[in-house]
Design brief:
The protein has 292 residues and is an alpha+beta fold. 34% of the residues lie in helices and 24% in strands. Strand 6 (134-138) and strand 7 form a beta hairpin.
Length: 292
């Protein structure tokens, strides 16, 4: 496999990106390249020109403000994984970044790319959705904020319009008494994509009852799947074995896995049940540590 002849342009600012995009409307955006270059080599994607945005430094930040955690779309997976701010206040994101691919891939892959590529096995979208994250999208004319839960349409399809680019991801600051976790299964520990993944975000009352929950499945549906019936089952109850088993059954019934070389649909469905229980327990344990 090889990359076909392609014209490469480079943008150093957002304005330069929009200018190049207006002149080369069919150009693909190149960030980390860990997905796009593979797709070009395999012939899944074709392009006569690319616009590299790797040198737009304004999109590489990780910071905290009144709206929550703000992650620049060009922040790398390694950068996110190594952030002390993320590790201390958003440890569930580390559940995803610490097990994603190999170090060489994490060094190049970007947070925005992991989201915009919209591949079902991506690790960040499920936990970001569970955390009620949104993406900030800009064009040369306007800016809009899209909840991640409504960003994905189908495999490799999002609500991004022509000329738009994701500039940042906003993750609300966790509320007191809440905890989140992401669990995934792959065929080997390193450099392997997820066969199935489950993200859970729970908030508990001072009495220990579940007040709200978001459960999101990854790699077992065309897009990250929010299990809406989980909240109806869990709210008002303690998290015990009975509730965990009920929710695991709901998640198994709600997913839509495929058969491929990494596992059958039936195998993936069983794994979802196991991962759901693990994610709920991990989220509960984290919530206990931040109670006040």
């Amino acid at each position: 496999m090889y990359v076909p002849d392609i014209e490469l342009y480079e943008a150093r600012t957002i304005d330069e990106l929009f200018d190049l995009s207006s002149r080369y409307a069919s150009a693909k955006i190149l960030a980390g390249g860990t997905d796009l270059l593979v797709d070009l080599k395999a012939g899944r994607v074709s392009a006569s020109s690319l616009i590299s945005i790797k040198k737009i430094d304004s999109l590489k930040h990780i910071s905290l403000d009144e709206s929550g955690l703000c992650i620049g779309s060009l922040a790398t997976i390694t950068q996110l994984n190594g952030s002390s701010l993320v590790r201390e206040q958003f440890p569930s994101l580390i559940d995803a970044t610490s097990r994603m691919a190999a170090p060489q891939v994490r060094n190049a892959a970007t947070v925005g790319g992991n989201i915009v590529s919209a591949v079902p096995c991506a690790d960040l979208p499920p936990i970001l959705m569970a955390l009620n994250a949104s993406v900030v999208v800009k064009s040369s004319k306007n800016e809009r904020k899209i909840p991640l839960s409504s960003f994905f349409i189908h495999v490799r399809k999002t609500t991004l319009l022509p000329g738009e680019v994701v500039t940042s991801i906003i993750v609300p600051t966790p509320r007191t008494g809440s905890g989140a976790a992401y669990e995934r299964f792959s065929l080997r520990d390193g450099n392997s994509i997820a066969v199935a993944g489950v993200a859970a975000n729970l908030r508990f009352s001072k009495r220990g009852e579940i007040e709200s929950t978001r459960l999101v499945l990854g790699a077992v549906s065309p897009t990250p799947k929010l299990v809406e019936d989980a909240e109806n089952t869990m709210v008002g109850h303690m998290l015990d074995d009975e509730i965990g088993t009920k929710v695991a059954s709901i998640a198994m019934a709600d997913c839509n896995p495929i058969d491929d070389v990494r596992g059958s649909a039936a195998f993936r469905r069983e794994i979802v049940g196991v991962l759901t229980k693990r994610a709920l327990q991990s989220a509960w344990a984290r919530a206990q540590r931040v109670k006040s």
